[in-house]
Amino acid sequence: MGQYTILLQLQHQSDICMHPCKIYTHAMQRTMQQSRICTDIRSGTSLDPTPHSTPTTFSIPTSQPQPQTSTNTKRKREINSFDASNSSLAAEKRPIIHAQPAPTTTTASNPYKQQLQTAYEHFHNLVASVNEFKLLSTASRSVHYIKPTPQSMKSSMPITKGVAEIRKDYTLSQILDSLRNSAIRKQWDPRFEEMRIVDVYSDDRTEALIHSFQKGQWPLVPGRDFCVAMKVFKESDVQGVVLFTSVESDKIAPVKNRVRGFLYCAGFLVQKAADKWIITCITHADPKGLPLALLNKVIEETAVCVGNFAQFIEQTGPVPPD
Fold it and tell me: 178: helix, coil or strand?
């Protein structure tokens, strides 16, 4: 700071000794420089030229009186102001998921019966291949396993399985319905982001076309979305399956800043065993390329979600489906 002051004094003395024309020229240059500084302040530009400094922004308060508004209106303005100023979200360019009302009409027939039947058979084959799964981890409410994906089915992610117990006297329908509630799924599935029912193929809404969204890791890894058919298979009074599999549909277009993943099958098998329910969750998916660090996290969180569901439904009780 002292050196900067001395330089200013020397410059001032030099200006005094200069020719009057030069003095006038320097005065004009300083006036123009001050004008540029004022313009920078109004536009919010940083004045610190050092590369390591934190950019400084400026705002010019308005002198006009603001009309009185209600508390709700003020709260909305605060939220909007926060969203606009959140530069990290803006940098992510995260796509906005607009909530859509679920369809109330039923399409005449399910166009994905064959795909669902193939996925259903693949799911039960995986359930039966107990010895092919290797222990991944254990938790207080569940046990988790993984199995290499077959070479004929392309995927960078192994098949995951989680097994948990529900020690409550619920009915099979109550558990199957609760598994299809997207609002509470956000609370027990750490990978789940949103789910939209696009079309319905049965009066009881147990067959549907769904657009599902899974979280990524912004801004490095975009989230995934899936175009899937869903069906509930009630195999008996004490056993049933909620099954999902990827299909193609013109009703679910690709989403900007998302990667369309593929589900060979993802399902929940619910079975009665004495005084408890056993839930087995198996997921065979191709996330279409994930960094190894995030992939390991996805594998673990996909497997443990069934234990989270068991704990959640025991604490809150069953809920209706979407």
Answer: helix
